[in-house]
Design brief:
The chain is mostly helical and about 210 residues long. It has one domain: Four Helix Bundle (Hemerythrin (Met), subunit A), CATH 1.20.120.1730. The chain is built from four helices and no strands. It has helices spanning about 1-70, 75-100, 105-130, 135-210. α2 runs antiparallel to α3 (about 105-130) and α3 (about 105-130) packs antiparallel against α4. The protein is rod-shaped. The protein starts with a helix and ends with a helix.
Length: about 210
Amino acid sequence: MKLCIRTVAATGAVATLIAAGLMYSASDRVSMAGKAAGEARVATLHSYRIAQSLKSLANGYELAMNEYYSTVLDFPVYQKKAAEQKAAIDRELTTLASLKDGDANTVAELNGAFREMETYRLALERALSGTDKDWDGAREALYKLNVLSVRTIQQADTLARIADERAVALDKGWMDHQSQALITLRIAMALAIAAAILTLSGALRAKRACA
């Protein structure tokens, strides 16, 4: 009888330990998954914001070239406007590179496209800054700038789409972790209840044995 009581008590103690371990494991998993998902989602949202910002900056950069070519802006005003746009683009590209998030090929293509735009911007300046303006060279440089601007905007759109899809995937992954943790907690709860029943049963048997 004593052996039976000890066995019941030992089984209850083991079940309690297992339940406690499962609860700790589930809680730790949710905490770690939440932290990782949170950090990744912040980076993803930054990527999305930068992609939208780069689209706007590419438009502004292209507009400055077109205004200069059309003589809407004189050279000093154009130069100041273009420099501000380029500085903002460089800041966003630097931030994007530091995030290490999203599609690496798209990020590399964005960098390459903006470098090409700068090359043709300088070509446009050279063609129009002299006394004898090279309008044919300016038109060619401006055409290539416009083509690159469209390509850059498309690449930024791709980056934004990838960031959006990644955010959805992160949310789904987080929900999956929560679901798995909930299952683990339910198992732990069932074990805890079983341990309580075993402990109570052992106590009742011990009481009867002593009576």
